[in-house]
């Protein structure tokens, strides 16, 4: 899925953070290759993602959001709503583990 996002130039958290965190030369690689539907261009983007630690940043951001929602759910009085939302969140988080 990430490859198709890169090849089609889809705007995502990954590319915006990589552009924000990357060095000028890394940003240049991203700008020249993102949205170019060629395997070499996709690999160049993935290399920069790896260099800036984008997957680790994404994992941390997802965990931070998950923990924040968990804390806020404690204030929801209806237990069934809490359980339903937690089940959804757990399913969503499972794909990031």
The helix content is: over 70%
Number of domains: 2
Task: List SSEs in N-to-C order.
Answer: HHHHHH
Work out the strand percent: under 5%
Straight-line N-to-C gap: 16 Å
How many beta-strand segments? 0
Largest sheet: none
- The helix count comes to 6
The rounded Rg comes to 17 Å
Shape: elongated
Structural category is mainly alpha
**What value does the average pLDDT take?**
90
**Uncertain stretches of 5 or more adjacent residues:** none
Task: Characterize the structure shown.
This protein folds into 2 domains: 2-52, no CATH class; 57-94. By secondary structure, it is mainly alpha-helical. The chain is elongated, with a radius of gyration of 17 Å. It contains 6 helices and no strands. The model has no long low-confidence stretch (mean pLDDT 90). It has helices spanning 2-8, 13-21, 24-33, 39-52, 54-73, 79-94. Helix 2 (13-21) packs antiparallel against helix 3 and helix 3 packs antiparallel against helix 4 (39-52).
Task: Break the fold down into its secondary structure elements and pairings.
Layout: H1 2-8, H2 13-21, H3 24-33, H4 39-52, H5 54-73, H6 79-94
Helix pairs in contact: 2-3, 3-4, 5-6
Short overview:
The protein has 97 residues and is mostly helical. It contains 6 helices and no strands. The protein has helices at 2-8, 13-21, 24-33, 39-52, 54-73, 79-94.
Which keywords apply here?
single chain, 97 residues, mainly alpha, 2 domains, 6 helices, 0% strand
């Amino acid at each position: 899925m990430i490859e198709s996002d890169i090849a089609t130039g889809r705007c995502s958290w990954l590319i915006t953070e990589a552009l924000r965190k990357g060095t000028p030369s890394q940003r240049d690689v991203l700008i020249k290759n993102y949205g170019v539907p060629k395997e070499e261009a996709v690999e160049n983007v993935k290399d920069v993602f790896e260099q800036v630690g984008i997957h680790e940043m994404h994992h941390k951001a997802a965990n931070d959001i998950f923990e924040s929602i968990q804390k806020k759910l404690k204030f929801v009085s209806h237990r069934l709503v809490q359980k339903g939302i937690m089940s959804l969140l757990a399913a969503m988080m499972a794909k990031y583990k």
